[in-house]
Design goal:
357 residues, D-Maltodextrin-Binding Protein, domain 2, seven-stranded mixed β-sheet, 11 strands, 22% strand
């Protein structure tokens, strides 16, 4: 028996063919198999469920169970599970920066042997599959704003975010265990050149943040929190993830963003040491890497950049037009210094926690 599932991306139709070998449905025993993945919930989880998890289950019979957690909670939970030997999750997406940290290496399973099968896949970007994690997608943390909140030219730079006279209204900034991007935005707003951003001048950054602090309506901890205030008009400008801004736009909300005020980030899939469904987790990752149509569907909804070049080609042009361009990367978008951030992660967090209290 052959099942065909059609996926429509904007004006572009993408067809996923899901074939069950031998002309039969998955065995009943396979249907009882599971794999547990943590996600940040909300629109992010909905998109992954619709375009990746459910098609994977249809093909393999393996049920994908997702649990919602913040990025900080994922790291803390993974570390605790490995330490106690009581591992109940199989995998989770960790940040591009964090996957090269010693803390990540202590709780993740090396993927050297798994990655061997993808080394000659010319369709995938060269660093897609690394021993420390497999690229899920790349996106940006950037300045988003309500275009109806201002008259005249919209805000475009981090300096504009600090300009309360020209761009009045509340602000939203993240507050979790990864404060470098808030500090970096403050330094750029204070006139630091992109090429001189790292190493971060933490004292200068916090002094600049003192200026904006009275206007901050929300220090968000989750992606859903970051956009809720836009829905309720609690703030006019916020530093949020592009995946969340695009989901808000898809709702028909008043939202726009600037690629001149953006940091390039990405998520990598991590298998936890001692994962109870390790083999199923590897199958889920392999399905992702081998399915450009699935990657295209997810990233068309979340405005992310998939690891497959073929996937990018499948995405609707109207979506690709709103993604960061090569010119944006060359001229404006900041690529963070992962090595420096990891080396100073505990110091940054301590300074941040002392300031945010």
């Amino acid at each position: 028996m052959k099942m065909m599932t059609a996926i429509r991306l904007g004006g572009t139709a993408v067809l996923i063919a899901i074939c069950f070998l031998g002309g039969r449905e998955p065995r009943a025993a396979a249907a009882a198999e599971t794999v547990v993945i943590a996600t940040t919930g909300g629109a992010y989880d909905v998109a992954l469920r619709k375009w990746w998890f459910d098609p994977f289950t249809a093909k393999t019979g393996i049920k994908v169970v997702s649990v919602a957690a913040t990025n900080a909670e994922m790291r803390a939970k993974a570390a605790a599970m490995v330490k106690t030997g009581n591992v109940s999750w199989d995998l989770y997406p960790d940040g591009e920066i964090q996957v090269s940290s010693k803390e990540h290496l202590a709780v993740s399973e090396p993927l050297d042997s798994f990655c061997g099968q993808f080394k000659d896949h010319d369709d995938l970007v060269s660093d897609t599959c690394l021993p420390t994690g497999v690229r899920l997608f790349s996106t940006a943390t950037l300045m988003a704003y309500d275009p109806h909140a201002f008259t005249g030219a919209p805000p475009a730079t981090w300096g504009d975010m600090w300009n309360l006279q020209a761009f009045p209204g509340g602000r939203a900034l993240p507050n979790f265990d990864d404060p470098w991007r808030v500090m970096a935005a403050a330094l750029l707003a204070d006139g630091v050149k992109r090429e001189n951003l790292f190493p971060l001048d933490v004292g200068r950054a916090l002094k600049k943040l003192d200026e904006l602090r009275p206007a901050v309506s929300l220090w968000w901890k989750t992606g859903d929190q970051s956009v809720q205030g836009f829905r309720q008009k609690d703030y006019s400008i916020g530093q949020i993830w592009l995946t969340r801004a695009s989901a808000l736009k898809a709702e028909g909300r008043s939202i726009a963003w600037s690629n001149k005020a953006a940091f390039l980030v990405g998520d990598r899939l991590t298998i936890i040491k001692g994962a109870p469904n390790r083999d199923n987790a590897l199958k889920l990752i392999a399905f992702w890497l081998n399915s450009p149509e699935v990657q295209a569907a997810v990233c068309a909804e979340l405005f992310c950049t998939p690891p497959s070049r073929a996937a990018i080609a499948l995405m609707p042009q109207e979506v690709r037009n709103q993604m960061p361009s090569a010119d944006d990367l060359r001229d404006n978008i900041v690529v963070p210094d992962a090595e420096w951030i990891n080396a100073h992660a505990s110091e940054l967090l301590q300074e941040w926690n002392n300031w945010i209290r």
